[in-house]
Amino acid sequence: MLREFLIISLLTALGASYSLFSGLAPRPWAVPDLQAGEIRLEDAQALEVIWVDARSKDAYAAGHAPNALFYDAGDPTGSLAAILEKWLMEPRVIVVYCADEACGTSRKIAEELRANLPDAEIYSLKGGWSVWAE
User: In whole angstroms, how far apart are CA 20 and each of 25, 27, 29, 35, 126?
Assistant: First the structure.
């Protein structure tokens, strides 16, 4: 019985070591690539999402995601109403983006939207518009 236990333990340790060092499993001490509430551009593009642009009006005018709604910080109630109306007409995942990863505006707006639309699936885009523009 001890022999079987040692064999099973050895095989388990070999399997775990192989998974960790071959890259099949993430290392337990590694920092996760995505934070809670974030989505990658590739994943968002694979879905039919409602894009919400949280950048300035000039940046939005210069270029934005297809059919993106502009979130006007000067009129958050009006912007929220437009997003709410769009989501109620056709419930889909909502992705908010701002200028780049350092910009925290998209995370704040996503939190605000989650508070107002508890049934919606809402993310902020990892890397922001800078990832889209690449």
Answer: 5, 6, 11, 21, 26
